[in-house]
Amino acid sequence: MRWNWLLALALLGSLMITAPNAHAVEEPRWTLAFRDGPFEVRDYARTVVAETSVAGDRGAAINQGFRRLARYIFGGNEPAREIAMTAPVAQQPAGQRITMTAPVAQTPADAGWVVTFYMPPGSTLQNMPRPLDDAVLLREQPPRRVAVIRFSGLATQNNLSRHVEELRRRIESRGDVALGPVVYAFYDPPWTLPWARRNEVMIELSVPR
Predict the structure, then answer these.
(1) Nearest Cα to 49, choosing from 7, 83, 81?
(2) In 3-state terms, what secondary structure has residue 55?
(3) Which domains, ranges and CATH numbers included, belong to the chain?
(4) Which end of the chain, C or N, has fewer beta carbons within 10 A?
């Protein structure tokens, strides 16, 4: 299982190192609404995502989900077309309203996890190839506002939880209203040195009308 996980992440890593640098991989389009140090509020554009639901704990779920989605973008589709990888990969709990985009992202729930790949900017449901695996679903995420804390280091549960607490404090201090579950987002291959890694925790916000 561990070896399969490393091989799956190597697919992402190989794409990243063929670019001028690891962060040359495209991300979903967003504009900055607010920034204070590592805390940001972003407005994301409409985005097409491929996602899959996986049971189990966080590590096992992102392992299985990543491999399933990687097969889809590397030709496991009709008509066997390769799709450019974007960053991050995202994960959030299943059984809750799904709203987030960006990274490899992740969130916990009794029903399992939803693991998400973001399709290249400009993608539409009409021009995406059909997944051969029925467990891979394509969906269009509407425009949304998202609060984000960016941090480096290893994605241990303690590190993630500490930054989730900080993110919730920042949201509360601004008087914003959180809508969705927390999403964990990971941008780098596993061999990236801890201090060079980009991790994010994210929560969708209600937009005042």
Answers:
(1) 83
(2) coil
(3) 2-205 (3.20.80.10)
(4) C
Contact 112, 54 (CB under 8 A): yes
DSSP-based three-state secondary structure for 107 = coil
b/e burial code for range 142-177 (CB count within 10 A of at least 16 → b): eebbbbbbbbeeebeeebbeebbeebbebbeeeebe
What contacts 15, CB < 8 A, 6 or more positions away?
25, 84, 85
Distance in angstroms (rounded) separating the CA atoms of residues 17 and 126: 30
Token reading at 134 = 């029925």
Alpha carbon 49 to its chain's center? 10
Please count the residues of the chain. 209
Please report which residue ranges of the chain form alpha helices under DSSP H. Answer: 2-17, 58-73, 157-174
Is the distance from CB of 179 to CB of 187 less than 8 angstroms?
A: no
**Residue 69 carries which side chain, given as an amino acid letter?**
L
User: Is this prediction's pTM over 0.90?
Assistant: no
The closest alpha carbon to 115, from 59, 158, 168, 154, belongs to 59
Contact between 189 and 12 under an 8 Å Cβ cutoff? The reply is yes
Cα separation, 163 vs 132, whole angstroms: 37
